């Protein structure tokens, strides 16, 4: 009886400037196998369908439990995490491609600097003025804590940016994930001290106004984060901030 195998068609690119091409190969099937384990199996024996020895495929990975967001790629036409993509649930041959929103480094490995630079732009952190113990901070109301926790699940995987039609090489739109982080950190009792800075950062070019409300982001997010709800809330917050800027008052 012949051994059961899984066939892959992987879009490869040797350098950032070279032309992409498709590599076809098979690996032995195992129960509960995911895409990452298949790529690791091929790395142990990098031979294509024609029996030719080829260079191992390059990709990013880290936690292997859908927490770090590093292993994002396009699987059968859908951007998602390859660690949680089970072979038994995928149509074969399985097609793997790099996310096209970000520059290609090599093969399935991409450069996410665009996303991380956007997080810096919106100040997606809570500034502190020292490491000394200040005691317990102010408590958040339970209702606010619950939805803020949902926003904190973001693992900067980049899937929502890949799914968004407004994030591309011809646009400087920062994308859904950084916008959602603005709402998260503005909701924090200490982070609220920099609320106006974050709102003004998304009121200019590449910010909130560039969102086309396609809803692709919330449908593709592997963590089910209510991204469009955050964007709607930020539309209200930035309108209030615009009035404050106009009248120079914090009482609006």
Work out the helix count: 8
Structural classification: alpha+beta
Indicate how many domains the architecture comprises: 2
Strand coverage percent: 5-15%
Question: How far from one another are the termini?
Answer: 76 Å
Oligomer: single chain
Mean pLDDT: 93
Count of beta strands:
7
What's the helical proportion of residues? 25-40%
Shape: elongated
| Level-2 CATH architecture of the largest domain | Orthogonal Bundle
Question: Helix and strand layout, with pairings?
Answer:
Elements: E1 5-12, E2 21-28, H1 35-44, E3 72-75, E4 78-81, E5 94-97, E6 104-106, E7 109-110, H2 113-121, H3 142-152, H4 159-163, H5 176-187, H6 195-201, H7 216-220, H8 227-247
Parallel strand pairs: 1-5
Antiparallel strand pairs: 1-2, 3-4, 3-5, 6-7
Helix pairs in contact: 3-5, 5-8
Characterize the structure shown:
Keywords: 2Fe-2S, 3Fe-4S, 4Fe-4S, Iron, Iron-sulfur, Metal-binding, Oxidoreductase, Tricarboxylic acid cycle. It is an enzyme of class 1 (oxidoreductase). Belongs to the succinate dehydrogenase/fumarate reductase iron-sulfur protein family. Its EC number is 1.3.5.1. The mean pLDDT is 93. Strand 1 and strand 2 form a beta hairpin. This protein has two domains: 5-110, Beta-grasp domain (Ubiquitin-like (UB roll), Roll); 113-247, Fumarate Reductase Iron-sulfur Protein, Chain B, domain 2. It is of the alpha+beta class and 252 residues long. A five-stranded mixed beta sheet has the order 2-1-5-3-4. A two-stranded antiparallel ribbon has the order 6-7. The protein is 32% helix and 13% strand. It has helices spanning 35-44, 113-121, 142-152, 159-163, 176-187, 195-201, 216-220, 227-247, and strands at 5-12, 21-28, 72-75, 78-81, 94-97, 104-106, 109-110. It is built from eight helices and seven strands; from the N terminus they run E-E-H-E-E-E-E-E-H-H-H-H-H-H-H.
């Amino acid at each position: 009886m012949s051994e059961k195998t899984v066939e892959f068609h992987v879009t490869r690119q040797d350098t950032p400037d070279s032309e992409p091409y498709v590599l076809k190969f098979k690996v032995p099937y195992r129960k509960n196998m995911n895409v990452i384990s298949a790529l690791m199996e091929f790395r142990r024996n990098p031979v294509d369908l024609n029996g030719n020895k080829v260079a191992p495929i390059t990709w990013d990975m880290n936690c292997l439990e859908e927490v770090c967001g590093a292993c994002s790629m396009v699987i059968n036409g859908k951007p998602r995490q390859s660690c949680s993509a089970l072979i038994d649930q995928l149509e074969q041959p399985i097609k793997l491609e790099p996310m096209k929103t970000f520059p290609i480094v090599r093969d399935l490995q991409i450069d996410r600097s665009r996303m991380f630079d956007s997080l810096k732009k919106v100040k997606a952190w809570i500034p502190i003025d020292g490491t000394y113990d200040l005691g317990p901070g102010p408590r958040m109301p339970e209702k606010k804590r619950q939805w803020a926790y949902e926003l904190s699940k973001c693992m900067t995987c980049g899937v929502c940016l890949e799914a968004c039609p407004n994030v591309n090489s011809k646009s400087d739109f920062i994308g859904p994930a950084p916008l959602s982080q603005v709402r998260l950190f503005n909701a924090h009792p200490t982070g609220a001290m920099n609320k106006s800075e974050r709102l003004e950062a998304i009121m200019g070019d590449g910010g909130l106004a560039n969102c086309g409300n396609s809803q692709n982001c919330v449908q593709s997010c592997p963590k089910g984060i209510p991204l469009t709800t955050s964007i709607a809330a930020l539309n209200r917050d930035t309108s209030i901030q615009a009035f404050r800027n106009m009248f120079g008052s914090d009482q609006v």
